[in-house]
């Protein structure tokens, strides 16, 4: 049964088989201090689909003190009872067998207040309500359009809700370029200082991403080879099968570069490429990530056509059957890209000459997020030709679906018949290895905010450095007046994306079985 409730500190160990080896894991689920989690945008898609279920799961694990409150805020005229009904449905969607007693206990933590971020009415009463639990850590989660961030922060400041142990969580996107990101960050900083500001990138809360740190820095095996001398190239792919659907309006102002590359994919690149931090202290890790972002080779207008590909899907097929093109979904012509491929380079000693191929898109054939690190070929083959070709070692970190790690090795094909080489993966699916259900990234990240641990959140200077690299590419695309290359829904993007990597003698990873 997923998420069985256990008394704090008495979580059982699980044992599972990993290729015949038994692995034991013990979940550590220490209770966090009592908190008030205020979700602005409490009726929105993110809150209903992700944040409320995430809190329920942590509650079921015994991590949430019953003096805590989860308070949904939106303009809709709901009350505690009607919002609890919404929350109940949200939980039952992810755990249809949720025990009634536990569900009721969770719903008892939930409240709702109707407030408009742009109007004054109701804010004094809300501040009084928050003041009823002065000792609770206060987390203000801005799960609204970023255009409301400044108004909401000003209201929180006016009512002194930013004082004491108060924290604000900002959802992406933080701006649409460096200038607009600076403006949001400056305005938020008038009310919350940097140590109180948590810019969330849920990719950093994924098990595989944290595991990348454990793999790299917890094993003697990888780090000595983690450099340009031994690594040929790196690929980072975030592929979605869905189109833009009802989010077409939002997406058209954003596009794949702002929605995925500038934040999620660059954050993943940082985790792969950073130098070993001296510790897991928040600034130790973030300082190293920042150095990577600052070392990214700028892609100016002259290099943009060679190093980048942007595409937009046309009608085609997906798992749902035949699907319309982007412009048909949107209802008007558009130059917004739904696909991007980029060859990025990091100009430092460790990575000089190692290309990082980044790729993301909507309406691709598979929902897949992965990092593929390909090692160089061995310098000389001692094997006869009929032993078969030597393949390169590859480390594949899968973020979704089925989080896990695969290390491709060459071995001898078992049995008689001479020495034949075979390429096989050491394959670890976290779910298979450790059983149970992996926590969603939001579960980890929201509790990190309560604990006051910003290691897995983006610092302001990181966001700025990412925009400094992305802005010239976006400008070059706009100035070129070129339309995005069309690709048929259900394919891996425009053929130019294949050419981008094949020009260098490599291919996009397709070994996902
Ligand atoms: P959404 O479904 O459009 O929800 C917006 C929420 O904001 C609603 O609860 C809405 O309720 C409330 N709201 C709107 N105007 C308001 C106002 N003036 N005062 C107070 N509340 C107001 O948006 P979403 O998809 O949940 O996304 C929220 C944020 O998370 C966005 O920044 C988005 O980019 C980001 N994000 C979303 C996802 C996702 O999967 N959905 C993923 C990553 C990031 P009322 O209309 O009743 O006020």
UniProtKB/TrEMBL annotation:
EC number(s): the record gives 1.1.1.49
Which residue numbers delimit the Glucose-6-phosphate dehydrogenase C-terminal domain?
A: 213-509
Q: Which residues form the Glucose-6-phosphate dehydrogenase NAD-binding domain?
A: 38-211
Q: Which GO terms describe its cellular component?
A: cytosol
Give compartment(s). Cytoplasm, Cytosol
Q: Which keywords does this Swiss-Prot/TrEMBL entry list?
A: Carbohydrate metabolism, Glucose metabolism, NADP, Oxidoreductase
Biological processes, Gene Ontology terms:
glucose metabolic process; pentose-phosphate shunt, oxidative branch
What are the GO MF terms of this UniProt record? glucose-6-phosphate dehydrogenase activity; NADP binding
Reactions mediated catalytically: D-glucose 6-phosphate + NADP(+) = 6-phospho-D-glucono-1,5-lactone + NADPH + H(+)
Q: In which pathway does it act?
A: Carbohydrate degradation; pentose phosphate pathway; D-ribulose 5-phosphate from D-glucose 6-phosphate (oxidative stage): step 1/3
Keyword Cytoplasm recorded = no
- Xref: Gene3D superfamilies: Dihydrodipicolinate Reductase, domain 2, NAD(P)-binding Rossmann-like Domain
Which InterPro entries does this entry report, sorted A to Z? G6P_DH (IPR001282), G6P_DH_AS (IPR019796), G6P_DH_C (IPR022675), G6P_DH_NAD-bd (IPR022674), NAD(P)-bd_dom_sf (IPR036291)
Family in the record:
Belongs to the glucose-6-phosphate dehydrogenase family.
What functional role does this protein have?
Cytosolic glucose-6-phosphate dehydrogenase that catalyzes the first and rate-limiting step of the oxidative branch within the pentose phosphate pathway/shunt, an alternative route to glycolysis for the dissimilation of carbohydrates and a major source of reducing power and metabolic intermediates for fatty acid and nucleic acid biosynthetic processes. Catalyzes the rate-limiting step of the oxidative pentose-phosphate pathway, which represents a route for the dissimilation of carbohydrates besides glycolysis.
Q: What is this protein called?
A: Glucose-6-phosphate 1-dehydrogenase
Q: Which organism is it from?
A: Lasius niger
Question: What are the top taxonomic ranks of the organism?
Answer: Eukaryota, Metazoa, Ecdysozoa, Arthropoda, Hexapoda
């Amino acid at each position: 049964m997923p998420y069985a409730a256990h008394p704090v500190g008495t979580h059982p160990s699980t044992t599972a088989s990993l290729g015949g080896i038994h692995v034991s894991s013990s979940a550590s689920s220490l209770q966090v201090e009592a908190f008030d989690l205020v979700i602005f945008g409490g009726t929105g898609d993110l809150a209903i689909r992700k944040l409320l279920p995430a809190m329920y799961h942590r509650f079921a694990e015994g991590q949430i003190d019953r003096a805590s409150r989860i308070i949904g805020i939106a303009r809709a005229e709901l009350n505690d009872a009607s919002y609890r009904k919404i929350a109940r449905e949200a939980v039952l969607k992810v755990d249809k067998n949720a025990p009634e007693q536990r569900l009721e206990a969770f719903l008892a933590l939930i409240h709702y207040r109707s407030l408009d971020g742009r109007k004054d009415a109701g804010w004094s009463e809300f501040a009084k309500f928050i003041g009823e639990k002065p000792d609770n850590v206060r987390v203000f989660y801005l799960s609204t359009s970023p255009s409301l961030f400044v108004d909401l922060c000003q209201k929180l400041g006016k009512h002194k809700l930013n004082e004491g142990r108060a924290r604000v969580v900002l959802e992406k996107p933080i701006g649409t370029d460096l200038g607009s990101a600076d403006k949001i960050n400056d305005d938020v900083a008038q009310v919350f200082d940097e140590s109180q500001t948590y810019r969330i990138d849920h990719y950093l809360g994924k098990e595989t991403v944290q595991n990348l740190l454990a793999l790299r820095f917890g094993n003697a095996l990888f780090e000595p080879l983690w450099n340009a001398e031994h690594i040929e190239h790196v690929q980072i792919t975030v592929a979605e099968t869905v189109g833009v659907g009802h989010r077409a309006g939002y997406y058209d102002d954003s596009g794949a570069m702002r929605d995925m590359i500038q934040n999620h994919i660059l954050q993943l690149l940082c985790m792969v490429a950073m130098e070993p931090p001296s510790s897991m202290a928040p600034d130790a890790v973030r300082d190293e990530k920042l150095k990577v972002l600052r070392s990214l080779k700028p892609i100016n207008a002259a290099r943009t056509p060679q190093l980048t590909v942007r595409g937009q899907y046309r009608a085609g097929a997906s798992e749902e059957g035949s699907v319309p093109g982007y412009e048909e979904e949107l209802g008007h012509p558009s130059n917004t890209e739904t696909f991007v491929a980029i060859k990025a380079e990091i100009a430092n000693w460790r990575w000089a000459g190692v290309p990082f191929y980044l790729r993301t898109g909507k309406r691709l054939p598979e929902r897949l997020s992965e990092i593929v690190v390909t090692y160089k070929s061995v310098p000389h083959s001692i094997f006869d030709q009929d032993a078969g070709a030597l393949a390169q070692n590859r480390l594949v970190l899968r973020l979704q679906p089925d989080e896990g790690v695969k290390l491709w090795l060459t071995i001898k094909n078992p049995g008689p018949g001479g020495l034949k080489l075979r390429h096989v993966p050491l394959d670890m699916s976290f779910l298979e290895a450790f059983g149970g259900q992996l926590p969603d990234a939001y579960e980890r990240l929201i509790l990190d905010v309560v604990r006051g641990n910003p290691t897995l959140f983006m610092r302001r200077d990181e966001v700025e450095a990412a925009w400094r690299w992305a802005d010239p590419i976006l400008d070059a695309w706009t100035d070129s007046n070129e339309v995005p290359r069309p690709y048929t829904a259900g394919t891996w993007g425009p053929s130019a994306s294949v050419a981008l990597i094949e020009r260098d003698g490599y291919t996009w990873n397709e070994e996902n079985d």
